[in-house]
Amino acid sequence: MNHKIKNSQHISKHCLVCGTENQFGFKTKFLETEENEVIALFTPREEHQSYPGIAHGGVSAALLDETIGRAIMPLYDQNTFGVTLDLQVKYRKPVPLGVELKAIGRITKDSGRIFEGTGELYLPDGKIAVSAQGKYLKRNLKQITDTEFIDEEWFSPEGELPDEISL
């Protein structure tokens, strides 16, 4: 399925999932679709390994948690996030290292301060490796961190935006 991309989401320097300067981080890029879903692009590396050649399950859970938590942003703004209240993860297939993976997250219920969402992590062949559903507390970055972080460490990623992403 093709998803038309309308925007990229901000990333930061030290976040485990999106941090550009975190040597062990995932360095994930997040894109917003015209359907207001979020697609994450991520290539697991050796430091994300569990069994040889396989990403640790916690890496997949963290990636989906972040992707679903960010799925609220297209509905509000770049500074609106989800703080996880509950996350349920189902592992279906091993997640390989060294290949680009795609995850997608979407909002299924938005009830003011609380929202719910689902997401899937796709293998390069299009099969679902991991799925998750979660419940989140909606928060503005100003409620989570300080102005210094927002001004100095929260920024748009470099590079061109793709027109479409296929899952």
Word description of this protein:
With 167 residues, the chain is mainly beta. It contains 3 helices and 10 strands, in the order ββββαββββααββ. An 8-stranded antiparallel beta sheet has the order 5-8-7-6-4-3-1-10. 30% of the residues are buried. The mean pLDDT is 96.
Low-confidence stretches are none
Number of strands: 10
Main sheet characteristics:
8 strands, antiparallel
- Which secondary-structure class do the elements indicate? mainly beta
- Cα-based radius of gyration, to the nearest Å: 15 Å
| Average of per-residue pLDDT values | 96
H-E order: EEEEHEEEEHHEE
The fraction of residues in strands falls at 35-45%
Shape, principal axes of CA atoms: globular
The rounded distance between the terminal residues' Cα atoms is 5 Å
What's the SSE blueprint?
Blueprint: E1 2-8, E2 11-12, E3 29-33, E4 38-42, H1 57-70, E5 80-91, E6 101-111, E7 114-122, E8 128-140, H2 141-144, H3 147-152, E9 154-155, E10 164-166
Antiparallel strand pairs: 1-3, 1-10, 2-9, 3-4, 4-6, 5-8, 6-7, 7-8
Q: What can be said about this structure in brief?
A:
14% of the residues lie in helices and 41% in strands. The protein has three helices and ten strands; from the N terminus they run ββββαββββααββ.
Give the key terms.
mainly beta, two-stranded antiparallel sheet, 3 helices, 14% helix
